[in-house]
Write a structure and sequence with these properties.
59% helix, transmembrane, membrane, transmembrane helix, Cardiolipin synthase N-terminal domain-containing protein
């Protein structure tokens, strides 16, 4: 294998490793999401790293998912279920 090919392989492996570490350190995702993203990175070398890396960058300003908040609000109905949208079906303006 030529020196150029080895350099390219090292570059790709470094990219995958860098994005994998970023995913593992992220507070945006739960453990299963992190595992699936790292799996995607290594099953689709370069493409997976670019896709997951771009997604991480796009979500970097998003607040982390708070599982405790969801568990504390079990009495809130799921989106679209029993939510009053402010319109009365019998009221005509």
């Amino acid at each position: 294998m030529s020196g150029f090919a080895v350099a390219i392989l090292l570059l790709f492996a470094s990219l995958n490793a860098l994005v994998s570490v970023a995913v593992c350190r992220s507070v945006l995702f739960d453990r299963m999401q992190k595992a699936l993203q790292v799996l995607l990175i290594w099953l689709l070398p370069v493409i997976g790293a670019v896709l997951v890396g771009a997604f991480l960058v796009s979500q970097s300003s998003t607040a982390p998912f708070d599982h405790a908040a969801v568990e504390a609000n079990d009495d809130i109905p799921p989106l679209g279920c029993g939510v009053d949208d402010g319109h009365d079906a019998h009221h005509h303006p």
